[in-house]
Amino acid sequence: MPKHRLDIRPLDAGRWRDLEALFNGPGGSQARGCWCMCYRRSGRADKPDGMTYSQFNKCALRALVDAGVVPGLIGYRDGAPAAWISLGPREQYAKLARSSVMKPVDDKPVWSIVCFYTAKAARGQHLSEAMLKGAIEYARSCGARLVEAYPVDKRGRGSDDSMWFGAKTMYDRAGFVEVARRKATRPVVRKTLRDRKP
Length: 198
What we know:
The chain is α+β, with helices and mostly antiparallel strands and 198 residues long. The chain has a single domain, classed as Aminopeptidase (3-Layer(aba) Sandwich). Helix content is 27%, strand content 23%. It has helices spanning 16-23, 29-34, 53-66, 94-97, 127-141, 168-173, and strands at residues 7-10, 72-77, 80-89, 111-118, 146-149, 177-183, 186-192. The longest helix has 15 residues, at 127-141. The mean pLDDT is 91.
């Protein structure tokens, strides 16, 4: 299997330990601090006493998974978890509604892609691009007709903290089109999904 090929699966309770292994690996400090909960809340939540925000976020994500919500997809290479993408119906991401950059463009139902994470040892191998393709197919299989993202549009290799959104050039290659730009380096892009022909 080429290095960029991945076996991409929805995160469910049976795969939770794989996400833990991915986020707890080298280079995952930001991921295991947030546990992809930042954009699911509209503000800073009050955590219980005696619990760190990392623990609180992890418990909150686990609760979603246990309730049957699929908060994202895991990419496996040679059977080991190597990459992650967070996506779902836009209404699941409360913080987007109050963002000056990512607020709704219109009232059309849309799925949002808000985060990529790749294991440190696998970075620079275009795994995010493979995860994006997997996300498009997964959203389509769930009935989505529009997928939206909020990439970073900067020249050169990005080191911006917001690069977890992905680079605009990657979305361009996947057929997304720009539909809004409220900040010079942060467009809103969309792709229209159609059913696969039999």
